[in-house]
Structures are given as C-alpha cells and as structure tokens.
Amino acid sequence: TWLPEPITDRLAHFLLYNWVAQKIYCASNYWNDPYHHKSFLKHVHFLPMVNNFTAHAHSWEWKENFLRTRQVYFMGSDDDEVIKPPQSALFSFWSDREASLIPMREQPIYINDWIGLKTLDNENRLHLVSVPGCNHQSWLKDSDVFFEYIIPVLW
User: Fold this and answer.
1) 104 contacts 89 by C-beta, under 8 angstroms
2) How far apart, in whole angstroms, are the C-alpha atoms of residue 35 and residue 85?
3) Strand-pair partners of 129
4) Using CA atoms, how far apart are residues 139 and 147, in angstroms rounded to an integer?
5) Residues near 27 by beta carbon (within 8 Å), at least 6 away in sequence
6) Tell me: the pLDDT tens digits for 55-87?
7) Which of these, 94, 76, 77, lies nearest to 31 by C-alpha position?
8) How do 93-94 and 101-102 pair as beta strands?
9) Which of 1, 6, 27 is CA-nearest to residue 16?
10) What is this structure's pTM?
11) Strand runs (DSSP E) across the chain, as ranges?
12) Cα(15)–Cα(28) distance, integer angstroms
C-alpha cells in the first residue's frame, strides 16, 4: 500500500467500524481489529454476537444449536493472504498489538466455552484443518483442494 501502516490501520478502522459499512459491506462484520477491540465489540453487528463475545437474547440458544452438530470442521491455511492472521480461521488470534499468536485453546472463546468449542473438542467433534499452500481463492477455485479437503467431510 502507498499509505504508511498506521494511517492505513486508522483508515480501515474508520471505514469498517461505522454504521454504513456494517449495513452494506458484509466483510466489515468479520473484521476483528486487534488495535480496536472495544470498537469491534461495540460496532460490529455479526461476529461478536455469533461468537457470543457479547451477551444477547439468543446466546444460549445459538450455543445449543451449534452443539447439535455431529462434527465441526474449521479449515484455514497459513498461506491465506486475505485473512489476517491466517490462523484466525482456526480461532487463533493475535495478542495485544500483534506481538504473538494465541492458540485457540488459550482464547477466552474456548476457555469459557462461549459457543461450545471446548465441549466439541472434549467430545472429539471439533476438527481444525490447516491446509498447506492454500491461498484465499483456492477454497473456491482449486478443484484439488475442494476434492481433497471439502468433499470428504461432507459425507
């Protein structure tokens, strides 16, 4: 990018964490900015609710529904150039200010079992699949990735 990194971060925060973006641009509902976690919880409509980061009227019901699944697969790749950090596809996330990566099993969402990840994991129903060499578009456009990783878990 031609902008210095701090300006880019501030601009992204301004553009994605406002009510217009939340209403019309779906990707803004997935962006968890480690520099503005309180804004994420306050302004993002989808991800904080679905992950039970914030209490809401359906928290318990959504967790119970998620726990009804027989097997849960989350797939990601360290080579994903869009999702940052790529490991967040597998519920790992940056520590404060991106200093290091905190694995899923050390995250509050897992420890407190907010959506049932810990329960599913303890029952061997949670599967985290890291696919080497898979960029962001490979999930949709690479038939080898589709047939090797996606199709087998659908049956």
Assistant:
1) no
2) 13
3) 75
4) 10
5) 16
6) 899 999 999 999 999 999 999 999 998 888 889
7) 94
8) antiparallel
9) 27
10) 0.83
11) 72-76, 93-94, 101-102, 126-130
12) 9
Helix, coil or strand: residue 31: coil
Are the CB atoms for 64 and 114 separated by under 8 Å? no
pLDDT tens digits, residue range 91-142? 999 887 667 899 999 999 999 999 999 999 999 999 999 999 999 999 889 9
Q: Find where tokens 């996606």 sit.
A: 150
Tokens of 6: 């701090």
Please give the structure tokens belonging to residue 60.
């318990």
CA distances from 82 to 23, 26, 42, 57, 138 (A): 21, 15, 24, 32, 12
Beta bridge partners of 142: none
Instruction: Please state, in angstroms and rounded to a whole number, the distance separating the CA atoms of residues 29 and 19.
Output: 11
**Single-letter amino acid code for the residue at 138:** S
Instruction: Output phi, psi for 50, to 5 deg.
Output: -65, -30
